[in-house]
Amino acid sequence: MFSETHKGKLNYKEIYKNYFGYVDDEFVPSELSGRRAQDLHHVHFKSGGRDDSIENLMALTREEHDKAHRRELTEEYLKQKHLEYIKRFNFKK
Q1: Which parts of the chain have pLDDT scores under 70?
Q2: Helix, strand, coil shares of the chain as percentages rounded to 5?
Q3: Which of 44, 45, 56, 71 is the most core-located residue (most Cβ within 10 A)?
Q4: What is the DSSP secondary structure assignment for residue 1, as one 8-state letter?
Q5: Coil, helix or strand for 24?
């Protein structure tokens, strides 16, 4: 799921991995279902000029990611779930 940096700059996959402390090939759960995530989704679509901040990145299964792009999962719903996920993670620290 995660690739290396590009030209010395952290890409969005590295930003996510570093924030949550994942290492290469480690199981990364979907923030919605807990199943193995295959994709990182920009909650606010990157094409809309959004950034690669941790608040805008969430791990999803391929099926969930496809639903997000088809707008079957709303941006507001994903944002809410992602912020809850971050809060739970920070509580554990």
Answers
A1: 1-9, 46-50, 93
A2: 45, 15, 45
A3: 56
A4: -
A5: coil
User: How many other C-beta atoms can be found within 10 angstroms of the C-beta atom of residue 82?
Assistant: 21
Q: Which residue has the tokens 């990611």?
A: 65
In the block, tokens 């890409």 appear at 11
Q: Which of 24, 27, 71, 82 is nearest to 45 (CA)?
A: 71
CA distance 35 to 1: 14
pTM of the predicted model, to two decimals? 0.83
Closest CA to 81 of 68, 66, 92, 62: 68
Place of tokens 């759960």: 29
Neighbouring CB atoms inside 10 A of 42's CB total: 19
First to last CA, the chain: 24
